[in-house]
Amino acid sequence: MTTTEELIKKTVDNLVKEFSSFLKTFTKNQYIFYDFNDFHYVGIVIKGRVIEKLISKHGEEKTYLNYRQYQMFGNYKEIVKISRSSFAISHSTTQILLFPEKIFIKLLESREEIKILLYHQLLIDVNKLGHKFEVLNFESANKRFVSYLIRMSDIYNSTIINATVEEIGQNISTTRQTIHKMIKTLTEINLIEKKYSRIRILDKEKLITLRDNLN
Known about the structure:
Blueprint: H1 4-18, E1 23-26, E2 31-33, E3 41-47, E4 50-55, E5 61-67, E6 72-74, E7 86-90, E8 94-100, H2 101-110, H3 112-134, H4 141-156, E9 160-162, H5 165-172, H6 176-188, E10 192-195, E11 198-201, H7 204-213
Antiparallel strand pairs: 1-8, 2-7, 3-6, 3-8, 4-5, 4-7, 9-11, 10-11
Helix pairs in contact: 2-3, 3-4, 4-7
């Protein structure tokens, strides 16, 4: 059975072949856009990672969302009317398929696979932001972490979660030290295993049971 990740990868790989002239390379910490509201492109990360940061009224910066390989970012003005004060930079040397907004809209109107790609990305964004708001429910860090693993597994229809400790911490508002402790505990009881920036769920049913019993 083809997974969602495999379908997304196939779609993006085909787009790279067809629109190779739109493939741009950014060096580490290079600005991709300075102002979200003036960004008239839709980007798909081919290699590396993009970090979007919000700017407060007082000029303070805070990470908003991370975009990894095969994920999309941009101001979808024709679809969702959104305005925010933010900028985006490359985390490392990053390759991006950068579509001018008008061309992307034409593709969206004519190709079903592009609609699926965008819908998938919006779902990811909503769920990532959902984790940030979970903090307001005063759930323990342990429950937020376990819930994050389960939700990411559901989104990607996979037992593998590709995320760094830093990214997880940003999503669930928890320190790296706390996450390391939780990973160690769940590994010791054989619920997950971790290698580099990849976490594999070994027993999802037990993980769900654990989540439901955490405060």
